[in-house]
Amino acid sequence: MQRPADVFAAPLIFEQGRPGRANAYLPHHEEGAEKYLPQALLRDELPLPDNSELDVVRHFTRLSQRTFGIDTGFYPLGSCTMKYNPRINDAMASLPGLRDLHPFVPDDLAQGALALMWELQRALCSLFGMAAFSLNPAAGAQGELAALLISKAYFRRRGESRRKTVIVPDTAHGTNPASAAMVGYKVISLQSDARGRVDPEKLRDAVDGETAVCMMTNPNTLGLFEDRIVEIAQVVHAAGGLMYYDGANANALMGNSRPGDMGFDLMHLNLHKTFSIPHGGGGAGAGPLGVAQHLIEFLPVPVVREHDGIYSLDFNVPATIGPMRSFWSNFAHMVRALAYICANGAEGLARVSQLAVLNANYVKQKIRDVLEIPYDEPCRHEFVASAQALKRETGVRALDIAKALLDRGYHAPTMYFPLLVPECLMIEPTETESKETLDGFVAALRDVIAQAHSDPAAVRAAPQQTAVGRVDETRAAREPNLRWTPRA
Amino acid sequence: MTYTPHTPADIRAMLEAVGANELTDLVKVPDAVALRRPLTDIPGPMPENEIASKFAALAARNTALENAMFLGAGVYRHYVPPVVAALAMRGEFLTSYTPYQAEVSQGYLQAIYEWQTYICLLTGMDLANASVYDGATALAEGAIMAVNATGRHRLLVSRAVHPNYRAVLRTYADGLDVAVDELGLLPSGATDFRELPSKLAGKQYAAVIVQSPNFFGVVDTPSKQEVQAIVAAGSAQIGVVAEALSLAVLATPRAWGCDICVGEAQSFGVAQAFGGPHLGFIACTKDHLRRIPGRLVGRTVDADGRTAYVLTLQAREQHIRREKATSNICTNQAHCALIATIYLAAMGASGLRDCALENLARAKKTRDAVCAVPGVTPVFTGATFNEFIVRLPAKAADVLAALRKRRVVGGLDVGRFYPELDDAILVAATEMTAQAEIDALADGLRAVLPALRSERFAAAG
User: Fold this and answer.
1) Chain B contact for A466, CB < 8 A?
2) Angstroms from A205 CA to nearest CA on chain B
3) Which of the residues A273, A356, A446, B227 has the least number of beta carbons within 10 Å of its own beta carbon?
4) What CATH code is assigned to B82-342?
5) Residues in CB range of A304: below 8 A, 6 or more apart
6) Same domain flag for A311 and A408
């Protein structure tokens, strides 16, 4: 199959424009910076391109047209919760009174922003059963790091600095081991049982006087609810450890069950997943951190306080681990999350989780005769399928299926994660997709699998309809070209 | 409004397909962890018009925007051409995930490659990553690079580095059991490197960290000899740039000797937004290629030899190397980096240079106006870009409170971070600072200082 010439390919912005083709956004200065600063402190040249505004508009419009988003099509990306991003959220975050507020303004001039953060904190505490939430962490991985720093401070306070191991089930989320390493913890990986869950008995053998934290997500990355979670928490607590909840899969839980009630001491949320914040191509995220009562004094600073209807930022948290980032929170995302909560209300959020679970079960049901479902029982908001048998029979791998889906207008599912399922495809439809969309996806997936049997080479050659074909990743890594360089 | 498209008929059909009677059957959990009470403290549900009213009311309570504004200190009020939001808010960009599926993400990948290039051209460094959370975390991650490169567990940081950045550095350093020592200040407001030879003698520092312009606005770069001493001691030189616009006119961090350059690029079109999201960057020499954390976009070819972009060198990252990764970071600030890339493309070299010059001009105007007020004096003598500190004849907190009553946010109370400078304010002026604001600040100081000064003298007497 010959790919048509890509008339919308865009040269680099650096290969366009002419020096002096300037846009007059600001007054022009004839004289140079030497009018204000000693020459020795100045740079020689500023080798950036000058483009007309129209050329800039065309350039980035073309780039956008070569980018797949939720607005373009269905995104069944497991553990990423690619739900619709309501535009009201962005409109609220763009209100000048919220968007143009400097973080150092005195509290009395920022009462609206602080009230908003306070209201969001309270809502999150209620939804997830935690005693307090800090909105400080910049993303899920940073919320996780903050939680582990809190555990370290907590054990130091108790004279138990010997606790340096973290138990991470193989069904936990991907960043957990790297975060543990950043606080000097050693990771012990725990194999899940035949039901794809943590076995409290096996866990009992794994914990000891050095156990600091057990990091879990529930539902786990197989999309299964850890139904023995109370016993699991008891085992960890009996050994003196803390329970940490990774909120990556919180979209399955709202209004139904709360990590705080399951026995978790610490948790983070990926606000950009559950609370409909646009992923923006991989960030910014937001990773609020929830803690139980006994860990409040370690929260990162600042904390938002309320007293008689007056709000303030409090930097004097007695045993704080310190601030995690330059300023108080990814505030624009707090605006979006609160707008989303307001739209739904408590009952609406419960409905969101129920329909997310319905959609996942529906897709699973419609494909279970053509792909293996290794843990075939009712799932929560996502499930994993395996292409291992298909690969054996046809040579077509999970990766090939994913690429063939791109040709049919769908984003790929998450692949090869969790690691315990070979040739894994992890599918999370989210609640914002209609039955027709799901039916269309199911038909496409079944079509790919039928083609794998009839013409496996065609599937392995996919994608053909996209801007480029499969990318030479080996060359990218062996001969790193990470920037454009001006011609000498 | 739940943004769910399911009709009752859809739900019935789907429940039937999966063999369940009720939606609640699908989300059953053991009794011990089932939610039994209705949730409190959750606002809504609200129709959109009510949401709009509610947030408009919250925004109106942020009365700061009605004030003359001189706050900077790592976040700057800059002009953003409307074309930036018009492009950046396109749904394809806004609602895309991390571009792991390169074939359907070429546009975003190319934009990030362009961002990496812009940062290299501005800083003079060899390579840059796809961005990190913000300036403070960029510093922490840059410091970890140096720790990993040298195997040393001690950092030497100038006291003129942004106090919030140093605080975050300590948070991260504490996790890794890395010690942080400090270098003091000279009367110019620049870092005092005189102790450098003795401090470096033990060859124990992973890096020496300096910010320029520093927290006080002073251009603060080590001399050639000082850089040589740092190199000779086997330490990395980390340069922090908290006001990226300054790079349009000031010598590049590479030119003054940085191995690693970290900073904050909020000034390139990203909203102040009460502190975030902002835009951290990390750039470095090619020696550090395998140690730089976070995502990197590389240029390569597809199966048919066409130019293609892809996330590369992922073997450094958390989802592959797990506990051996260079960092736990797994998001970048992609959308903020996109905004900055569009901003830089629209401004161009000419526009960016004009913007920087306008900042220099208005900051000088502001400084002249403020220093003409009796009793107000410059604290430091060093060259500055768009902010500076001045000493007042009274406690800064009192003066700022009095100015606030006149709708002037006169800057930042430096004593908040440097107790010995509790009579100083940090004042920023940008191309957005109107002459009326400068007048309001100078007139305000003239009006409020006499009363406060006499009170202070009375207290002292």
Assistant:
1) yes
2) 22
3) A446
4) 3.40.640.10
5) A114, A117, A118, A121, A135, A311, A312, A313, A314
6) no
